[in-house]
TrEMBL record:
Its cofactor is Zn(2+). Residues 242-276 form the FPG-type domain. It comes from Pseudonocardia thermophila. One of its GO terms (molecular function) is zinc ion binding. GO terms for biological process: base-excision repair. This is Formamidopyrimidine-DNA glycosylase. Belongs to the FPG family. It catalyses: Hydrolysis of DNA containing ring-opened 7-methylguanine residues, releasing 2,6-diamino-4-hydroxy-5-(N-methyl)formamidopyrimidine. Keywords: DNA damage, DNA repair, DNA-binding, Glycosidase, Hydrolase, Lyase, Metal-binding, Multifunctional enzyme, Zinc, Zinc-finger. It comes from the Bacteria.
């Protein structure tokens, strides 16, 4: 799933390649992906891209060429969605429901440059909204503070008194926006904290370590990602991970094998040597440390 660093890089890529270009045509290949009807998606035709922005893990393409009628094409890429830039595209409209394409935006001219929103797999969760204000998107309206904008004191206040496990809290977008499964694993590993540690019971030193890890992991990932081509971002993300999706491989810090906790539809990874005092976590929801 694209998280804060990848969405920030995609927004920068659009600012570099799409700004000042008019929309020539919009092809909708998946009607289920489009979650809004007013304004209609075809109202983008003739509008000029003026910017791109990130809201948590949401990506927004901005059309403010008519200040009295701004539009924002907002997408949440979910688990298997992606934005693909193209320098040229087929002029034939795509067949709905065929292949991974959900929406295509032609810029300058039909068949010219532009971008596709795609989604692999059978679970179609990619969501597209055309709105006058990004706050009209429910997921954006409910976002907590951005993970790279929150201060250390604000972060401490956010944790105070909370009973959630750290892993649960870090990925809850209404609490803290932008972090998903992969980077939460990396942040907790860098901070040397158990995914099952209770958020409201951290010491001041642990809060310092967690906040520093949050800043360093996300900032480093953004710096590596911004400026890369959209097609290269997934590989860059995988290359920068130390524990996530590395089950069974040696931890690059202590050498112990990375372990996994699996749930019904997802899993997370951690290092027992770095994070849980050498003790493995039981592989079930809301588990305590195995003794």
């Amino acid at each position: 799933m694209p998280e804060l660093p990848e969405v920030a890089a995609l927004a920068e890529h659009l600012r570099e390649h799409a700004v000042y270009r008019p929309v020539a045509r919009v092809d909708v290949a998946s009607m289920s992906a489009v979650k809004t009807v007013d304004p209609p998606i075809q109202q983008l035709v003739g509008r000029v891209v003026t910017g791109a922005a990130r809201y948590g893990k949401f990506l927004a393409v901005e059309f403010a060429d008519r200040p009295d009628e701004p539009l924002h094409l907002v997408t949440h890429l979910s688990r298997a969605g992606w934005l693909r830039w193209h320098d040229s595209a087929s002029t034939a409209p795509p067949k709905p429901g065929k292949g991974p394409l959900a929406l295509r935006v032609h810029l300058d001219q039909v068949g010219g440059p532009g971008f596709d929103l795609t989604e692999a797999g059978t679970q179609k969760r990619l969501a597209v909204y055309l709105v006058r204000d990004p706050q009209e998107v429910p997921g954006i309206a409910n976002l907590g503070p951005d993970a790279l904008a929150i201060t250390r004191d604000e972060f401490a206040d956010l944790l105070a008194g909370r009973s959630e496990r750290l892993k649960t809290l870090l990925v809850e977008q209404s609490v803290l926006a932008g972090i998903g499964n992969a980077y939460s694993d990396e942040i907790l590993h860098t901070a040397k904290l158990s995914p099952y540690a209770t958020a409201g019971r951290l010491t001041e030193e642990q809060i310092d370590a967690l906040y520093a890890a949050l800043r360093s992991v996300l900032t480093d990932a953004v710096e590596r990602s911004v400026g890369m081509k959209a097609a290269e971002l997934k590989g860059e993300k995988r290359a920068g991970l130390r524990v996530h999706a590395r089950t069974g491989l040696p931890c690059p810090v202590c050498g112990e094998a990375v372990r996994e906790v699996s749930f019904a539809t997802k899993s997370f990874q951690y290092c027992p040597g770095c994070q849980t005092g050498g003790r493995p976590l039981a592989d079930r929801r809301l588990s305590r440390l195995v003794r």
